[in-house]
Amino acid sequence: MGLMKIMTYEKLKSLVKDEEINEICSLIEKDNDIFFKIMDFLGDEDFKIRENALMVIYDGIYSISWKYLQEIEHLILPRILNLFNDPIASVRAEAISLIFCLPEHLDENLPQILKISYELLEEDSIQTQRSAASSLGTAAFWFLGTKRDYKKALEIRLKLARNRDKVIRSKAIYFNQNIRNKFPEEVKKMEPVLKEIAENTIKLLKMDLDMSKDPIRWYKSGMEINNRKKFFKALNLIQKKLKVQPKHKDVWYELGKIYDELGDKPKATEIYKKILKIDPKDPLATLFLSYSDI
């Protein structure tokens, strides 16, 4: 008997309301139909239920089989798109984030994604602004890879770099080498911002960072000031971490991006493909491969 047959609607709703995301994802792994049932909560009158359901779906995608996702994708998409017009900004932000897990539908929805994300940057909630900034950063990668539209990618990066929030400005740091080559003057104008972000990051590093435990921060500070010595230090630390946690996808992402920035495209591609071996459904690894100029 499938879990969905014994899991009551109210019990499942209670888990969603309490943000028991890990527990729900564990249940989804055992019975993929629970994932489908979560979609019912996207129309709930309580906005927190809608918002939490989106977060569950975002994480739950990694718990279902690829075949099952293909079977129900046409049912997921319209429900997500419907939430682009939700009256609650945080719900709209979560919906925008989730659409990137369905990359084959990005092209047709990018204009709306950009419009809403820019609007969300003006919201009062800093968390909503930062969520929108993350989506815009991913959109910039998409323009780099799928469209090779470097001008549009630069436009998004400049918008983020001029934001008043330091965290949002940090989303603008990664300027693909093609952007640097095609728009050197525009990128040069950003150097004061890049330097300011680097200085703030270094302060944090000095205050509270154990380098051996968090090599990703080394990577970010190195990238921000474009200092190859720190890139190589980051490589060393990340590789040590991967010996302990060989399936830590976030660290593999950072390793791939360092090789990309250092100009070792074959090595970057090898890293992104390794992520897909860990998780064949991973949308970000696919996205990074699409913009990597191999």
Molecular structure report:
With 294 residues, the protein is mostly helical. Among the domains are: 10-99, no CATH class; 190-294, Tetratricopeptide repeat domain (Serine Threonine Protein Phosphatase 5, Tetratricopeptide repeat, Alpha Horseshoe), CATH 1.25.40.10. 74% of the residues lie in helices and 0% in strands. The protein is built from 19 helices and no strands. Helix 7 packs antiparallel against helix 8 (106-120), helix 9 packs antiparallel against helix 10 and helix 16 packs antiparallel against helix 17. The longest helix has 22 residues, at 126-147. It is globular, with a radius of gyration of 20 Å. Mean pLDDT is 76; it is low at 204-213 and 221-229. InterPro entries: ARM-like (IPR011989), ARM-type_fold (IPR016024), TPR-like_helical_dom_sf (IPR011990), TPR_rpt (IPR019734).
List the helices and strands and how they pair.
Elements lengths: L2 H4 L2 H9 L3 H10 L2 H6 L8 H14 L5 H17 L6 H11 L6 H15 L5 H22 L2 H12 L4 H5 L6 H6 L1 H6 L1 H18 L6 H10 L3 H17 L4 H13 L3 H14 L4 H9 L3
Helix pairs in contact: 3-5, 5-7, 7-8, 7-9, 8-9, 9-10, 9-19, 14-15, 15-16, 15-17, 16-17, 17-18, 18-19
Shape descriptor reads globular
The CATH superfamily of the domain at 190-294 appears as Tetratricopeptide repeat domain
Main sheet specs: none
Tell me the span between the first and last alpha carbons: 48 Å
What's the tally of helices? 19
> What structural class is derived from the secondary structure elements?
mainly alpha
- The helix fraction, in percent, is over 70%
Order of helices and strands: HHHHHHHHHHHHHHHHHHH
State Rg: 20 Å
Counting DSSP E segments of at least 2 residues, the number of strands comes to: 0
CATH class label of the domain at 190-294: Mainly Alpha
- Calculate the mean pLDDT score and round it: 76
CATH level-3 fold name of the domain at 190-294? Serine Threonine Protein Phosphatase 5, Tetratricopeptide repeat
